[in-house]
Every structure is written in structure tokens, then in C-alpha cells.
Give the backbone structure.
Amino acid sequence: MKKLIILMVVIVLVIPVLLISEVNYLSEDEYKKLKKAERLNYWERLETDLQALIERKSDAQNRINNATARIEQLRQQIAAVEEEHATTYSQILNYLNVDKNDTAKWANFQSKIDYFNKQINDFNSLTDTELWNAKKQIYALRQEWNDYRKDNYSKIPDFQDDVIMIENRLNRLETELESKRPKYFEDSYTVLEDETLSKISGYHFIYNDPAKWGIIYRANRDQIKDPNIINPDLILKIPRGKPNTWKVYKGEFLWRIASYPEVYGNGAKWPLIYRANKDQIKDPDLIYPNQVFEIPRD
């Protein structure tokens, strides 16, 4: 029984020692209190721990050596890439005929970037109506930017982030402008030599249809007496969309107004105009010049 108890004590003492990864170092007083067998066991554990530490140090040193060699290899690769980058960068500048030392031109380009950013910031601060009313200025700014991008300085790698930023901001501004487009508005067009209303109407950026010349004529009857005669430099209103009101001109009646393509394109729909304007139309067969009618829309 005594041997069994001793064996159990040994197991209880040894198993925890085997499970821990580090030695629990004893103080001098604690060491003196150990019995001979316990001291031997303690020294064996110290030797085992020392050997493990030596092996861990050797393994760590090997990994340090490998990492150091890899770092040096990467440094050499980085140096090679940087040298290649410098060569390519120099070739790009030479191709663009740009002088890196011409600080004035570099500063000028940066000032243009600042200029475009400020212009876009100003447009972004406008209300929806103000933004739409500024569409010509926005279109002009886009054209100015497109022209400026032809400058070789805009192709320099140093400025690519700025160039991409301005391009993206203009795209977003134009998208925002398009979202504010009203259902009806009027563009303008300045007449050139030998142009006619049908020729203007046929332009792809107008209506792409010469037969729609009447839309332009009716929107400009205050300045066009004869649709067959228009003078150069005349600024025409170009209707876009369908109007919500209509000013009556001499010789018009409800059926004719409803038949205009910019109204309903169907004369039979004249009762829609009549019912919406009963307050000023007593007899649908009698309407008068300069009356302004509401044009109902779905």
C-alpha cells in the first residue's frame, strides 16, 4: 500500500510537469527545501527545458536567416522595378515632350485642376431649377475640359488621379443635370446662312425629322412672319417635350391645336382642352388670339 501511495504521488507530481511547456523556476530557499530525488528531478527538467530553448533558438535563427535572405531578394526586385519605372517614366515624358523641370507649367496644370474642381463645386451647390437653368454653362465646362485634356500635361502619370477625379465628377454632374430635366423646356438655335426651318428640324440634335419644322415655327411665331423666310443670326426657340400651356394665335381653333404633334397629335382630342379651360371658353367654336389654355397631360 505504501508503494502504491508513493506511485500515485509521483504520478500527481510528474504529469503536470510533463504537461507544462516551461519550468517553474525555484528560488534559492525553495530549492534548499527539496529532497535529493526532487533536486535531481528539478535539474532534469531544467536540462530538458534548456535543450528545448536551444532548439527553439536555433529554429528561430534559421527562420530569421531565411527571412533576411528573402528581404534582400525582395529589395533587389524592388530596385529593379524602380529602375524600370524610372526609365519608362522618362520615356513617357520624352514622348509627351514634357519637361519635368518646367515648374511653371506643372503649377499651371495644377491650377487648372483646382479651377475645374471649383466650377463643379459651384454647380453642385445649386438648386434643381438653378442647375437645369445652368445647363449651357455645364455643357460649356464639359467642352472646356475635353479640350484641355488634349494637353500633353493631362497625360502625365503624376496627374492621372486628378484627371480621373475630374472626369468622374463631371460625369456625375451631367447625370445629376439629366435627372433634373423638366418635362418641357426650350433650347435655342442660331440660324446660319441658307438654312430653312425644315433643314434645321432635320438635324439629328434638333428633331432628326424635317417634317417637324412646324414645331419650331409655332414656337417662334412672334418673330417669324413667313415660315419660308428666316434670316441668319435669328435665335430660335427649340421646344423639347410637350408644353402644359398653349397661347392661341390668329386662325387657330381647338381641333387644330389638338392636332399639333407637340400638343396631342390628334385633333379629335380637342375636348380635353375645352373641358380643362371652361372658365375662359364659353363656346368651343369660339376662341380668341392671346388666350392661354392649359393642356392636360396624363
Summary: Residues 1-21 have pLDDT under 50 and may be disordered. The first strand starts at residue 184 and ends at 190. The radius of gyration is 44 Å.
